[in-house]
Amino acid sequence: MPAMIELLQQSPPVAIAAASLLGLLIGSFLNVVIYRVPVMLEREWAAQAAELAGVTADADAAAPASPDGAKFNLMVPRSRCPSCGHEEPHRQGEPCTRRRCPQCGQALIRR
Ligand SMILES: [Zn+2]
After folding, report:
1. Interval between CA 89 and ligand 1 midpoint (Å)
2. Spacing, Cα 100 to ligand 1 middle (Å)
């Protein structure tokens, strides 16, 4: 670890590249959190409201279930096309900078 810090101190381009990569990783994770946490809270509150109303619902706070029973948290489900629901393939050799859904051709907003 000290060797890595020394390398970063001696080579500004490497330090800039490392800081940029770290920034992209953190930004990508925060993008997921910003999109998914409100949805998770809304589902949890709906489950609690349904429970108070006497309707049976899955009130698992860690991974609240959607009305169709699928889990929704920071890890699952994978990204989907907002237009057709096509699940984004997991690294099938395609670059992650794809801008259109391969199924319907709709422009994708990265989340
Ligand atoms: Zn689509």
Report:
1. 12
2. 8
105 CA distance to ligand 1 middle (Å): 6
In angstroms, the CA 15 to CA 11 distance is: 6
For residues 81 and 53, what is the distance between their CA atoms, to the nearest angstrom? 34
Give the tens place of pLDDT for each residue, 40-85: 999 999 999 999 998 765 544 444 455 556 788 888 888 888 888 8
Does position 94 have pLDDT exceeding 90, yes or no? no
Candidates 94, 95, 93, 96; CA nearest to 110 is 96
List residues, by chain if needed, whose CB lies under 5 Å from ion ligand 1.
Answer: 81, 83-84, 86, 101, 103-104, 106
Check residue 53 and report its DSSP letter: T
In this predicted structure, what is the pLDDT of residue 62?
Answer: 46
